[in-house]
Description:
By secondary structure, this protein is an all-alpha fold.
Amino acid sequence: MGTVYPARYTIHAENLIAQKIGGIENLEAAVEKDGSAGAIDIFAFMVAALIEGGVQHGKVESQLMGKDYLGPEPISYETITQLLQPGEIIDLKDTIMEAIREGNKTNIELKKTAKKKVHAVKVTTEWLKHTALKSGMTLAETLASTPGEIMDLSACEAIDNGAQQKIKMSFDDTLKVR
């Protein structure tokens, strides 16, 4: 059995991917533009970025808990392309997409209000970094966080400033409240 590498879509991983393809929103166009060889290259790069994000997250988490990081060091893009066959890299597409979905998942939702005119904000890496740093996180903590975690942090800030949290409850949850 080989080494199991953590994969996490963090702000750091998002930055690396943005440097390669200009942002996650450009993934489909980049894959179509460069054909199958380009897709293999992009997916291998994304795997390396997600692993680097996972390792960085593990190190920051260990540091915050006062423990030593015991996980593996990140594996490089070059090593990934040397070890895996093209089909194996393509097979990782679902794992890549699941890590991105999980990284963007939020747990806090705000109610829409009719009173105030709300301005939409384009959520960029810079906006996420600004939000996290403004809340008191260090740069290392920020880069090791997922976009979803920082969006939840932003929602908490909005709630502190008067926004209403949207609470979803199942029928069973409602009965427990009684």
